[in-house]
Amino acid sequence: MEPALIDPFMRAVTYLRVSVTDRCDFRCVYCMSENMKFLPKKELLSLEELDRMCSAFIGLGVTKLRITGGEPLVRRGIMTFFQTMKRHLDSGALKELTLTTNGSQLEKYAEELVACGVKRINVSLDTLDEEKFAGITRWGRLPQVLRGIEAAQAAGMRVKLNAVAVKGFNEDELFTLQEFCAKKGMDLTFIEVMPMGEDMSEAARLGQYWSLKDLRDTLETRFSTTDLSESTGGPAHYIRINETGQKIGLIQPLSHNFCESCNRVRITCIGEIYTCLGQEGHMDLRPALRDNPGSDAPLIAAIHTAIGSKPKGHDFDYSRKRTDGQMSRHMSHTGG
Ligand code: SAM
Ligand code: SF4
Asked: pTM value?
């Protein structure tokens, strides 16, 4: 048995998020530029390499695996990957296999995902207005996503909606989104816009920032809320709406530091490990994987080295009205 992954701050790493592609069928304004240049396909980890990478982490004590991107469900052959990962659920080594998706392909894949052991998924949806949806995603179509959500629920998956809180864009839909989720029995999480990617001016980013503290204040003009102490191993802080019993998650990387309990690391679609979403520091695991097709020992050693340098926390900070801690890479690179 390999020793578990413990970082220098004594945090056990048990949650792995893997980006399986940098491509996407949407171009959300806060995530991608309109003319994204994608990586050459040969740079991407193959499905077999993704399997080896994830299996190595599971062997090192990772119990939760989240597949993301880009849009994970546009990666060719991705269902083969989910099918092979199921063996780790069957063995009990993996407790949860899940994904974050824009929902566009769910109508097609919901049943297959359930057959692969996926029980819960996160669907990203910022607005229920067709025109606004087309605007913020540039290429997306709302009815397709809504059908995807229906299909996921009909197949038996629990769906959680993730909405990025964007000032002047979906502030007026707070109660519409909350009611939609209450009706459909879905949890709802709001995410503060993070400063990712270089193509947006600083002024535009600061303009987009809608603090979740303000969002909660607005919620409390209609409802009373209670803080919940539970944690799902993710960065969200949960509150309950007392009148509806609904649970609302708040992910506040900018105004609320959640690094003390961080249990996760990220792998990009080309096999780099980022041990902190908010730091540029990373290590390339691909040579250890590609140069040693017959042995995982070098990969395992490289993973231990990377975890040994996991930083204490991130540096995002808008408090001085500058986008301090801004990083040049796009969210689709590390997979949100
Ligand atoms: N395509 C999938 C989706 O949209 O769910 C998975 C990848 S996407 C990069 C993962 C999450 O990151 C989405 O919920 C998206 O809204 C969020 N995201 C992207 N850019 C962001 C940003 N600049 N700040 C905060 N969240 C962002
Ligand atoms: Fe694609 Fe998701 Fe980024 Fe939107 S947030 S462009 S759906 S990867």
From this structure: 0.91
